[in-house]
Amino acid sequence: MSRKEDRTSDLPPSDSDAADEVSEALNGLRHAIENTTNDLWLRAEKPFLLDLLAFYDGLEWFRDEVLVTDSPRDVLRDAYQHLLDDFLELMEKRDVVRLSSMSTHQPTMQRAIRTIPTTEETEHGRVVQVCRKGFARDGVVIRREDVVVLENADRGGVSPSGSPALYLDNES
């Protein structure tokens, strides 16, 4: 080995070489973090995904066994109720429960999607139809019920929403 080659190996790497090494190390670290994050998400979501797949299997069973055959109406109704119960059980595993319907409009739990005029003052705010069920988790409303409410013009409008910060449905 010549004396000149000896000296160049003793010199510090150039700034360009150092930058390339740092960039390569950062890319490796970024890939490791992405892989770890993806693995963690998959492990966290796996039980939920398995429950969704079991529910999907129930939907396929309903289609293949109940809808294809000439099932009596009561069999269809029972099979459909079974699917609804399975779905609610899946939600309850995640502490998501269906809100109890209120007979009087409650803006924090219900969203008035339509009002019907009434001349009776005592009828103001009465819920006459639930169009879509509401759900909550740990006391926090995830989705309010969509309801049709009676409204007396003399008492003012029915409040369509409460404090938007309370809701996850973003449908105020």
Layout of strands and helices, then pairs:
Blueprint: H1 3-10, H2 15-67, H3 73-92, E1 96-98, E2 110-118, E3 127-132, E4 135-137, E5 140-143, E6 145-152
Parallel strand pairs: 2-6
Antiparallel strand pairs: 1-4, 3-6, 4-5
- Straight-line distance between termini: 79 Å
Main sheet properties: 3 strands, antiparallel
According to DSSP, the number of beta strands is 6
What is the helix/strand order? HHHEEEEEE
Task: Describe it.
The protein is built from three helices and six strands. It has 172 residues and is α+β, with helices and mostly antiparallel strands. About 4% of the residues have low confidence. The chain is flat, with a radius of gyration of 30 Å.
Keywords:
2 domains, flat, 172 residues
Summarize the structure.
This protein is of the alpha+beta class and 172 residues long.
